[in-house]
Amino acid sequence: MLLPLLQIASIAALTICLYRWKVGSSRRNxxxxxxxxxxxxxxxxxxxxGDQSIWNGNLNVTPEEKWRLIQGVHGLWTMYExxxxxxxxxxxxxxxxxxxxxxxxATLRSDAMQIRVxxxxxxxxxxxxxxxxxxxxxxxxxxxxxxEMAARTAELLxxxxxxxxxxxxxAM
Length: 172
Prior knowledge:
The chain is an all-alpha fold. Helix content is 80%, strand content 0%. The chain has nine helices and no strands. It has helices at 2-29, 33-38, 44-48, 52-55, 63-69, 72-96, 102-127, 132-160, 165-171. Helix 5 packs across helix 8, helix 6 packs antiparallel against helix 7 (102-127) and helix 7 runs antiparallel to helix 8 (132-160). The longest helix is centred in the C-terminal third of the chain and has 29 residues, at 132-160. It starts with a helix and ends with a helix. The model has no long low-confidence stretch (mean pLDDT 78).
């Protein structure tokens, strides 16, 4: 008696998951370029991320100064959200562009996932009060990848969606 109920419940759960995935996918595909760019969260911390010399170790900046530059938890969460939005921008360019470099798309996808993992790791360490050095390592890594991902996204858009690139560059 219990086994058939479990089978029905698992099939129902799988059906619901597949339906939600399909609805989300079609909603993402129906978005306009302007609606995607409008979701980019722009504030002072994202503007300071463009200076790669800070994140690549060319300048002698303390972890506390880096934390202040990105505005702490707020800046980390902004990077997390913007990584997803830039990935959607790359997917939009791939769907609507003439020829998109598959290696560049793979790199953007990898960057987005690595940024999100680094940010979540830094936030978890911050929440549990672990050593600030390990938070700094994750924060620096996420910020460096974020600035590189923004540059790659601009490169992709310049090559495949010339009409889209100015909106993205103005937003960043």
